[in-house]
Amino acid sequence: MDEQGYSDLLHSSRELSSFYLEIGAAKSKVEVVKILYGYNLSEEAFDEGFPDLSKAVQDLPDDDSTTA
Prior knowledge:
- The chain has helices at about 5, 15-25, 30-40, 45-50, 50-55.
- By secondary structure, the chain is mainly α.
- The radius of gyration is 12 Å and the shape is globular.
- The model has no long low-confidence stretch (mean pLDDT about 85).
């Protein structure tokens, strides 16, 4: 079992679950970048470590100003 991949990015299963929930609830790419910043995670590391989430984020609008 290779636990090293995620352990460099997020330190616990609780933190990983929280990360997935926050990214899943994001309504814009700007919001995702803020979440990544909060987890000290670069966009490049996000793309490499979480390819499925990264792909889902691509469908989000760039910002949420259109919903205001």
